[in-house]
Design goal:
about 70% helix, Growth Hormone, Chain: A, about 525 residues, POT_fam, single chain
């Protein structure tokens, strides 16, 4: 591939040198790119609220609101990036554009931090805060272009026809690719939450942001280094056609009053099976099931952390473990489990089922959803014990004191939730990639991410509703003083919700007709 070929507008393209393009050689570059990109992105996201409340001197409430709004935007923008890639830019050009946006946004953060390092937080000007937020939203836009497009481009290296035709080796390799992609980004997350957080806390924010900039610069360099190995992109559907698909999806979800217009768009989709006959009706139940699942798993980053903060977090060496560091257990579970799943479970299951991935994607997703419910049940049991220990120790009304119960009690619920994500998160991304038209697969991955985002919003609304409903009956289940709260009741509620989600999901999955011929 000539250097300029990567930048050509997408269109009808062919694999000019099939013997040297695509396959694991090309996918390996993109797996490394994913590690470096996640390292740079999570290096900012993981410690963002500390930066806003520290050097910028923002009030905690204002900083939290700002971070929440930004995080919501991060989850929505992949739809925009995927739509632009699949209708106009193409996946290679979208990843390149994301790299430029990453360098610009992280460069702005680094420069801003360096210029304000000698200033007191109280002297931070509104213009400076605005500059920071512009950089942050450029960073969100970069992530929105990069995440779905880079992952879809990697899967494209194991070429199948749009109908899913191809040898079993290609299908198995593509399924394996999704496992290794998540293995890579798990290392990126684990490294950023340890090494980069330490760097930001001890060497300063400028050094931390500069390290993030260097990570994405290296990511872009690796992407360009592998340019000669990438398989040419699939033909891209007409932009207006793809927009009609997304509008039809939105109309079905939000039930616009303009029913005739929505119906007309759906009929357009149904006339051509190549563009996804029955796409909305088929995928919507799976999308909703993923949303409910995400509302359960989102507790890892909120209530699980608060629960862990009340425990005795001292290690034998005297080191006190930060509550948020427990989230590393999720990444470690990915790092340990994914290679074993890919190299041991899949070959053994393949002998029994004859399926190229051992189990179907929907079976894998359902297993993960069930594990999430088990994790919440275990969390409820642990929380019940924590409340009893707090009462026996007489620290119920002394929330500033650690409950005399080891931090290790909450590790199993983190590991179980990590196993749930290994099964369901990876399975959902592979499923949405497979079950949309070939030229819209970036959008398919973005739809998966949007389900996760919607689940996070739903979780927030559920927490608020439960807090409001239980506040007047002897104390909220989610009180500020967790020793007086009943997180165990809330966890049991989520375990029941997860069980209901699995039951409904199994009902629809048994009736689901896979779009790809490679699936049973």
């Amino acid at each position: 591939m000539e250097s300029g070929e990567l930048l050509r507008r997408p269109g009808p393209s062919v694999d000019y040198k099939p013997d040297v393009r695509g396959g694991w050689r090309a996918a390996f570059y993109l797996v490394v790119v994913a590690f470096l990109e996640r390292l740079g992105f999570y290096g900012v996201q993981g410690n963002l609220i500390m930066y806003l409340t520290g050097p910028l001197g923002m009030p905690t409430a204002a900083a939290a609101a700002g971070v929440n709004a930004w995080a919501g935007t991060v989850l929505v923008l992949p739809l925009l990036g995927a739509l632009a890639a699949d209708s106009r830019l193409g996946r290679c050009r979208a990843v390149l554009a994301a790299g430029v946006l990453y360098l610009l946004s992280l460069g702005m953060l680094t420069a801003s931090s360096a210029l304000s390092a000698s200033s007191a937080p109280s002297t931070t000007s509104p213009a400076h805060v605005t500059f920071i937020y512009v950089a942050l939203y450029l960073l969100a836009l970069a992530q929105g272009f990069h995440r779905p497009c880079a992952e879809a481009l990697g899967a494209d290296q194991f070429a199948l026809s749009d109908e899913g035709e191809g040898d079993s080796s290609s299908r198995a390799s593509r399924s394996s690719y999704f496992n290794w992609f998540h293995f890579s980004i798990s290392w990126g997350y684990a490294t950023s939450t340890t090494a980069l957080s330490y760097l930001e806390d001890n060497a300063g924010w400028t050094a931390g942001f500069a390290a993030c900039w260097a990570a994405v610069a290296l990511s872009l360099a690796v992407f360009l280094l592998g340019a000669r190995t990438y398989r040419a992109e699939q033909p891209v559907v007409d932009g207006s056609r793809l927009v009609q698909t997304v509008r039809a999806w939105a109309a079905s979800v939000f039930r616009r009053k303009d029913a005739s217009s929505s119906t007309e768009r759906l009929l357009i989709l149904n006339r051509d099976p190549e563009d996804g006959k029955g796409l909305v009706a088929k995928l919507l139940p799976i999308w909703l099931g993923a949303m409910v699942y995400a509302s359960v798993t989102s507790q890892v980053y909120t209530l699980f952390t608060k629960q862990g903060s009340t425990l005795d977090r001292r290690l034998v060496t005297g080191l006190v473990v930060p509550p948020a560091a427990l989230q590393c257990m999720i990444s470690l579970t990915f790092i340990v489990t994914l290679p074993a799943y890919d190299r041991t479970f899949v070959p053994l299951a393949r002998r029994v089922t004859g399926h190229h991935a051992g189990v179907t994607t929907l079976q894998r997703i359902a297993t993960g959803m069930a594990m999430a419910g088990v994790a919440m049940a275990v969390a409820a049991l642990v929380e019940g014990r924590r409340l009893r220990v707090a009462a026996d120790a007489g620290v119920v009304d002394r929330p500033e004191m650690a409950v005399p119960m080891s931090l290790w009690w909450v590790v199993p619920q983190y590991v179980l939730m990590g196993l749930a994500m290994v099964m369901a998160d990876v399975g959902l991304e592979e499923f949405f990639y497979d079950q949309v038209p070939g030229a819209a697969r970036s959008v398919g991955l973005a739809l998966c991410l949007s389900a996760m985002g919607a689940g996070n919003y739903a979780s927030g609304m559920l927490v608020s509703a439960v807090d409001w409903a239980t506040r007047g009956s002897g104390g909220s289940w989610i009180s500020d003083n967790l020793n007086r709260a009943h997180l165990d009741y809330f966890y049991w509620l989520l375990a029941g919700l997860a069980a209901l989600d699995v039951a409904v999901f199994l009902y629809f999955s048994k009736r689901f007709a896979y779009r790809s011929k490679g699936e049973p």
